[in-house]
């Protein structure tokens, strides 16, 4: 049986999840009404910087950090705010949002375009050396 291309999996996920435009994410992040979660690898953060105020939850640990029954659970995810995930280009985040929906997380979305979209829209980025 051939492997389903990841592009197909991402396209299917995007049909079933909410994708928020960057301008809405920026507005809501500034207002504190969302929990903005960066699921990129630590090497990506070191190389390209971070969105100020976003929490980091590496993709490989995300489900474990979200699950209250997991020994790895992180209280950051005990929130009544909308959780908005992002990765580099909104592919991993689409798959992650779908997985968390399947776990029962109801108020969740991804950011359109990911970190690249944020940067292209002029969003603030904190560099690894702490500068902006």
Concise overview:
The protein has about 130 residues and is an alpha/beta fold. The protein contains 6 helices and 5 strands, in the order αβαβαβαβαβα. It has a single domain, classed as Rhodanese-like domain (Oxidized Rhodanese, domain 1, 3-Layer(aba) Sandwich).
Helix content: 25-40%
Q: What general outline do the C-alpha atoms trace?
A: globular
Structural class, please?
alpha/beta
Any idea what the CATH superfamily is called?
Rhodanese-like domain
- Segments where pLDDT lies below 50 for 5+ residues? none
CATH topology: Oxidized Rhodanese, domain 1
Oligomer: single chain
Instruction: Give the averaged pLDDT, no decimals.
Output: 96
Query: Beta-sheet strand percentage?
Result: 5-15%
Physical arrangement of strands within the biggest beta sheet: 1-5-4-2-3
SSE ordering: HEHEHEHEHEH
- DSSP E strands, number: 5
Organism: Oceaniovalibus guishaninsula JLT2003
Protein name: Rhodanese domain protein
GO molecular function: thiosulfate-cyanide sulfurtransferase activity
Tell me the layout of helices and strands.
Elements lengths: L5 H11 L2 E2 L1 H10 L2 E5 L3 H7 L6 E2 L5 H5 L15 E5 L5 H12 L4 E4 L2 H7 L12
Parallel strand pairs: 1-5, 2-3, 2-4, 4-5
Helix pairs in contact: 1-5
């Amino acid at each position: 049986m051939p492997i389903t291309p990841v592009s197909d999996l991402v396209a299917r996920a995007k049909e079933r999840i909410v994708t928020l435009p960057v301008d809405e994410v920026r507005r809501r992040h500034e207002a504190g009404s969302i929990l903005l979660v960066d699921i990129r690898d630590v090497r990506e953060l070191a190389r390209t910087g971070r969105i100020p105020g976003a929490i980091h939850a590496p993709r490989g640990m995300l489900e474990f950090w979200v699950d209250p029954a997991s020994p790895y659970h992180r209280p950051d995810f005990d929130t009544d705010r909308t959780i908005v995930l992002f990765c580099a280009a909104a592919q991993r985040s689409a798959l992650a949002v779908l997985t968390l929906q399947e776990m029962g997380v109801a108020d969740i979305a991804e950011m359109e375009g990911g970190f690249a979209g944020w940067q292209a829209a002029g969003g603030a980025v904190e560099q690894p050396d702490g500068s902006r």
